[in-house]
Amino acid sequence: MGKSIDVEVAIIGAGIAGISAAYYLCEQNGKTSVLLIDKRQPMSYTSAQSGDNYRDWWPHPVMVEFSGFSIDLMEKIRRDTDNVFNMTDRGYVLATRREDIGDLVAGLHADADIVSGRRHIAAAYPALADDIRHVVHIRRAGDISGQQLGSFMLNRVRAAGGRRLAGEVVRIDYDRRFSLDVSTPDGNQRVHAEKLLVAAGPFAGKVSAMLGIELRIRNVFQQKIAFEDVLGSVPRDMPFTIDLDERTIEWTDGELEMLAEDPELEWLVREMPGGTHCRPDGGVNGKWVKLGWAYNSASSEPQEDLANEPRLDPSFAEIVIRRASSLLPSLTPYVEKPPVRRSHYGGYYTMTDENWPLIGPLGPDGAFLVGALSGFGSMAACAAGSICATWMCGGQLPDYARDLSLARYENVELMSAITGEANRGLL
Question: Is 143 left (phi over 0), alpha (psi -120 to 50) or beta?
Fold first, then answer.
């Protein structure tokens, strides 16, 4: 066992959630003895797979407040740094072919504009398909560079005295303080800490089990593609655009017959959930486009190497382009001739059944958790890190903070309300 390290706060996980918590421990609470522990490079696992979008559009007021607070914090960093992380505010566009959107409008807990009728939609959003009947534009939304945000925060943590240890926590003991056994490239290391934060992303369940805590979380692998839009099919100023409708993918008669006869592919001919989304990537002078569709619902154990995840489907690019072309017809040429320069990647949505985060105390006195940030890690990281740091330092918490912690499972009325919601804000 190598020389031991003594710190006030040990953070397990150097993704965007762990880095943000470290940042707010240092920036808003004056902590200097903070250690980030991760065997990988910072922001190199699930955080590296982020779609890098943000919004305050959620189906429950608590999540609206939480995400709004995160946007407030991001806007402050934008002002203070001359927008070092390229935050835009083009909004979200929600498109539907439905005649009646009364339930959608009633469920909006965000400032929005509604555009209806073919003539008005064509004028405002000319790239959308002719059959789109209504568009809801969420105002407080846009995109960021999550990597640049994380890099900024990490630099500030280092400047405040925070450190990083490259290694994997393999054991945690607790006797008035925490003792962590960390396997590093240079041998085993012992870390002693007054307080402990589990920010291990998809591995949060594994780490929490070392403390004797079983979390109600699961990991769901979701995929995205990015490609060079050599045809200029997606307007460079187009907001993050989402197809809300459940639909079947458009196949030829021959393709339909072939898919229907294959037990492993038959699911592709059924009606699929909404949520296909697209946005330009790289600014107004860029050429790349991002496409995503979180249609997977099956849980899986996180792989050490994301490239080995068996759900990384080679046919995903064709599937998502076909579906997206029904919303953005200008993408149709890529169905027959797929983009040459493209990237296919994926990451885990570590989530609770209700798709709310878990932020707050965890088991032994002095242990805390920030996790279950599902597909909204980058956009929620600032609020999650700030609230977690406030929990750890005994500060004044937002009124809704308890509802984001493990304590919410004791609130029968709240859990009944949020688990019964059909819309969980999943994209």
Answer: beta
Nearest by Cα to 243 from 96, 425, 108: 96
Contact call for residues 158 and 19 (beta carbons, < 8 A) = no
Q: Which residues make Cβ contacts (< 8 Å) with residue 7, sequence separation at least 6?
A: 33, 34, 35, 163, 191, 192, 193, 194
Range 53-77 average pLDDT? 97
Q: Which positions ≥6 away from 401 have C-beta within 8 Å?
A: 359, 360, 387, 390, 391
**Alpha carbons 43 and 45: distance in angstroms, whole number:** 6
pLDDT digits (tens, 9 = 90+) for 195-237: 999 999 999 999 999 999 999 999 999 999 999 999 999 999 9
The span from the first CA to the last CA of the chain, in angstroms, equals 45
Q: Are 86 and 283 in contact (CB under 8 A)?
A: yes
Per-residue confidence (pLDDT) for residue 100, from 0 to 100: 96
Question: Where do the H-state alpha helices sit in 125-247?
Answer: 146-159, 204-209
Domain(s) labelled CATH 3.50.50.60 in the chain stretch across 5-84+145-217+353-419
Fold of 5-84+145-217+353-419: FAD/NAD(P)-binding domain (3.50.50)
Averaged over 412-427, what is the pLDDT?
89
